[in-house]
Design goal:
The protein has 216 residues and is mainly α. Helices cover 75% and strands 4% of the residues. It has helices at residues 2-30, 39-69, 73-77, 83-115, 117-120, 132-148, 152-159, 162-177, 189-207; strands at 33-34, 37-38, 179-180, 183-184. A two-stranded antiparallel ribbon has the order 1-2. Strands 3-4 form a two-stranded antiparallel sheet. A hairpin with a 2-residue loop joins β1 (33-34) and β2.
Amino acid sequence: MEDSRSRQIQGNGLGLTIARNLARQLEAASTVEVYNKSMLSAATELFTHMSYMVFTGVMLASFVVGAYEKKTINLMFAYPIRRQKILLSKILAVWIFNFAALVLSKLLIYGVLLLTKPITHISAAGILFGDISFWVDSLLGSAAMVSISYIALPIGLKMKSSRAAIVTAVIIVCITQGNIGTFTLVNNVFFYALLFVAAVIAVVLSVYNVEVRDVG
């Protein structure tokens, strides 16, 4: 009887030891830097950026390319409003929604990590709500990621295919967020600047001559 109780107590002690060691390992791992950021921050940004870049492509395919594909854009262009304004309003609406959603998603994840810190014992040293650079990085990063997805827009419009726009958005995600061995383009400012310029050109091409262009 006493031996059984002793084994039970020892078993509980072993479980507590394992749990404590696991918590320490998680806390140590969370302080490791990835792409010059804490692992938690890097993982959060990777997850949210990939998700909303694809989602932006899906929304562009649905609300802009799909309108051409299904010919519903003809009805919108029948109103006494310039076609450029109609098209730009749809493009801007998609951008504003995804930018706001991406920023809020990041803040929600960071907030949950901070609130559960006493339970998980995971270091949240990289989450600095009181640091202005944290907000600048989050806002600029979100704006850049959403904007880059617009490279898929003229491809979808040219082919009049929502599927082509979505596939292009996924390819952009793989290029910008993926890695080959130790090589990655994440946090490459020059590369992202080029992509941002390409995205601006993509939007300009999408609305260029839309007043006289045949919508098919």
